[in-house]
Automatic annotation (TrEMBL):
Keywords: Hydrolase
Family membership: Belongs to the peptidase S33 family.
PANTHER family: 2-SUCCINYL-6-HYDROXY-2,4-CYCLOHEXADIENE-1-CARBOXYLATE SYNTHASE, PROLYL AMINOPEPTIDASE
Keyword Transmembrane: no
Record has ATP-binding as a keyword: no
Protein's UniProt name: AB hydrolase-1 domain-containing protein
Domain AB hydrolase-1: 144-274
Source organism of this protein record: Turnera subulata
């Protein structure tokens, strides 16, 4: 991290000194000592020039905002920003956390006056993507915007809440109290804090919200529309009902999950028997499961969570199928017992990310709460589906075993090693009733900010019917309804999804 202030007296002497080192003169042959001295001066010039650039960048920073120097990846220039914000924005004197944002432009556009676009990542609890080149939607954004990739509080480089860092809390009550500040309401307040310090003249910016990032963008429309130039939503229109909307969401989502399971087994009918065989093996294993490399345990119900990624995103079906191709170890020695392969067990853990991003499991149901508790809604609604998601029963009866979707269950905090230490805090969050409001229906009904949304007809994570209910309450929203893409359309479509939404707002595409 750079110093927050560079002494003004230091910058000018550096610039003056370096400019005098290599004054123009007629080239002459150099002896070896002179050649070495000349090379030394060139290296010193480069080093001092870098120092001057660094100090100049730091000089524009303030006590609560530190901007780094520009650096490069192929066809892009990037600059890191770190902001010191209150944990509780309603109490500026509360403890502070750091929020990280990465500014991205096309090469050569560092000094151009471009409108700003803030990207809000899906989740909750996941950091922004790290660009490695100018491609896909990032390339499309950088054609006309200055892109800001925000690591939402608690993720990435924003005072991350990890399985190890959260061990610093000595009680479940203390952790639960801390975590209440990591929802969309405070993500929006962080965004406004950043906007007034980053955008010239504190002007409004465009917000692009993917999935949960779209939920945050609708919260932004509700409480801080003055900071918004326009809003783009991709698979991210939330339920906005008061109380807890989780039950309504999961009833709709379970129906879509069943549909996705049926599609999967039609695509790969051979997997019906393979998955049943795995479930029987797990159920008959000692303790009802198989130890995982991390120390957790793979049980029939945790196996079903593979649907979280496998059923709802592009190429998910294929990835899931190929994973089950290698579920068993070969029998190398006659008479050896049948065993699940280490490859499969490790792939299972890598698939879910609960160990690296525990905030997702802890906070997931809270994103649906306004003044009411979730009470483990996904687990409660699961019981309404007459055994369709009972893996052991399905295997015994010869039925296909259904995978689950974007649901978090209380037993995960027993079976997933990285989550065990947070079990008590998770229960406290599930019972918490006094969650503040995330949306303002009156403000949305009177919305004046241009909004365009991609609504995916077979979205497993953000149900189509639920999204349409909310869209009807956002004044002026322009909808693009499509079954060409799944929930990951922004990533999968290159720049096409973003191109279509921008076209709807700038008049290049039909409004309806």
């Amino acid at each position: 991290m750079l110093a927050t202030h560079a002494p003004p007296s230091l910058i000018k002497p550096i610039v003056f000194f370096t400019s005098s080192l290599l004054s123009p003169r007629t080239p002459t042959p150099l002896s070896l000592p002179k050649l070495l001295h000349h090379r030394f001066r060139r290296r010193l010039f480069r080093r001092l020039s870098t120092m001057a650039e660094t100090y100049a960048s730091a000089a524009t920073s303030s006590a609560d905002h530190v901007a780094g120097a520009w650096y490069s990846v192929p066809d892009l220039r990037l600059r890191d920003h770190r902001f010191t914000v209150p944990l509780d924005h309603s109490t500026p004197t509360s403890s502070k956390i750091s929020v990280f944002a990465r500014e991205v432009v096309s090469v050569g556009k560092e000094e151009q006056s471009l409108p700003y676009l803030l990207y809000l990542q899906g989740g909750p609890g996941f950091e922004c993507p790290r660009p490695t080149e100018a491609s896909g939607w990032v390339h499309k954004v950088c054609e006309e915007f200055r892109l800001v990739l925000l690591d939402q509080r608690g993720t990435g480089l924003s005072t991350p809440l990890t399985a190890s860092s959260m061990q610093q809390f000595d009680s479940a009550e203390g952790l639960a109290e801390y975590l209440k500040y990591f929802r969309a309401d405070n993500i929006v307040k962080d965004s406004e804090f950043i906007r007034v310090r980053l955008v010239p003249d504190a002007g409004p910016w465009t917000v692009l919200g993917q999935s949960y990032g779209g939920f945050c963008a609708v919260t932004y429309l509700s409480f801080a529309p003055q900071g918004l130039r326009q809003v783009l939503l991709t698979g991210g229109i939330p339920p906005i009902a008061n109380g807890c909307a989780a039950d309504h969401v999961y009833r709709a989502c379970y129906q879509q999950v069943i549909h996705q399971n049926e599609k999967y087994y039609k695509r790969f009918p051979q997997d019906v028997e393979i998955v049943r065989e795995v479930v029987k093996y797990l159920a008959e294993s000692e303790g009802g499961g198989v130890p995982l490399p991390s120390g957790g345990v793979l049980t029939p119900r945790s196996l079903q969570t593979l649907g979280l990624s496998g059923l709802g995103s592009s190429a998910g079906f294929e990835r899931l199928h190929y994973m089950f191709e290698r579920v068993w170890d070969p029998i190398l020695v006659p008479g050896s017992p049948k065993r699940m392969s280490y490859y499969f067990l490790k792939a299972f853990e890598n698939w879910l990310d609960f160990d690296t991003n525990p905030l997702y499991a802890l906070m997931h149901e809270s994103i649906y709460c306004q003044g009411s508790s979730s009470q483990w809604s996904a687990n409660k609604i699961r019981s309404e589906y007459e055994g369709k998601f009972d893996a052991v029963r399905a295997a015994k009866e010869g039925r296909p075993v259904y995978f689950t979707g974007e649901m978090v269950f209380p037993w995960m905090f027993d079976e997933i090693h990285a989550l065990r230490q947070f079990k008590d805090a998770a229960h406290l969050l599930a019972e918490k009733k006094d969650w503040p409001a995330l949306y303002d229906s009156a403000a949305l009904n009177n919305n004046k900010v241009p909004v365009a949304a991609a609504v995916y007809y077979e979205d497993m994570y953000v149900n189509f019917k639920v999204a349409m209910e909310t869209a009807s309450q956002i004044a002026g929203i322009r909808l693009w309804i499509t079954n060409e893409y799944m929930h990951s359309g922004l990533r999968d479509g290159g720049g096409q999804v973003l191109h279509h939404l921008l076209g709807m707002l700038n008049g290049k595409k039909p409004l309806f």
